[in-house]
Design brief:
Elements lengths: L1 H11 L9 H10 L6 E6 L4 E9 L5 E10 L7 E10 L4 E6 L2 H6 L16
Antiparallel strand pairs: 1-2, 1-5, 2-3, 3-4
């Protein structure tokens, strides 16, 4: 039964198949150095989420701890919305980058203004 369950899971989750794209395999191996580090994730819908990377899989599904969303506005400073523990599906991840903590702490986000990112169009 366990084998049958495994086969069913693979059929429902194409990302777990042996045909995972080379790009995702490279990205997943790169993420290993980011575990337990503060990262900034830009999602396909333009959200900017910052938190500690706690885990990921070959589909780039990621788990962030102690995270918050930075909501940019052209009229007011950046609003930081606390999210806590957060999971982001890999197919919604556009960019992941490590955050320089010292530089990040030196920025007064209440004075930063910016346009809202537009969603990624495929």
């Amino acid at each position: 039964k366990l084998t049958k369950l495994n086969i069913t899971w693979r059929a429902l989750s194409p990302c777990l198949s042996p045909r995972v794209s080379a790009g995702k395999q490279i990205m997943a191996s790169t993420l290993e150095s980011y575990v337990d580090q503060i990262v900034n994730v830009i999602t396909n819908d333009g959200r900017n989420i910052v938190g500690v990377l706690k885990g990921y899989d070959q589909c780039i599904n990621i788990i962030l701890e102690s995270c918050h969303e930075r909501v940019f506005s052209p009229d007011a400073g950046v609003e930081q919305v606390e999210l806590g523990l957060y999971i982001i599906r890999g197919d919604n991840v556009s960019i992941i980058g490590e955050v320089d903590e010292d530089e990040d702490l030196s920025i007064d986000y209440s004075k930063v203004k910016g346009e809202i990112l537009k969603p990624v169009v495929h």
